[in-house]
Design goal:
InterPro entries: Se/S_carrier-like (IPR021778). This is Putative Se/S carrier protein-like domain-containing protein. This protein is an alpha+beta fold and about 80 residues long. It has one domain: ACT domain (Alpha-Beta Plaits, 2-Layer Sandwich). About 30% of the residues lie in helices and about 25% in strands. The chain has 2 helices and 4 strands. A 4-stranded antiparallel beta sheet has the order 2-3-1-4, with helices on one face. The longest helix is centred in the first third of the chain and has 13 residues.
Length: about 80
């Protein structure tokens, strides 16, 4: 069984926002990927962005600067 690691999960209201965030964050070379929403979180559109926890502030700033809406950022073991 794979060891769980602490990750941040950015939750979006719409699939369009999630896909726009993926393009934006990849353009800024932010480590992470688009994933299905973890079952521990019951919110959003069903898609989320997962990254290491130390990138939380950077991701938040990039999304705000680019005008991409997100619902919340959670920290979870995955």
């Amino acid at each position: 069984m794979r060891e769980k690691k602490l990750r941040i999960v950015v939750v979006f209201n719409t699939t369009t926002d999630a896909m726009a965030a993926e393009v934006c964050l990849k353009k800024h070379k932010v480590e992470g990927r688009l994933i299905p929403l973890p079952s521990e979180i019951s919110a959003g559109c069903g898609m989320s962005w997962s990254s290491p926890p130390d990138l939380s502030e950077e991701i938040e700033e990039i999304l705000k600067t680019e005008g991409i809406r997100y619902e919340n950022i959670y920290t979870v073991y995955m």
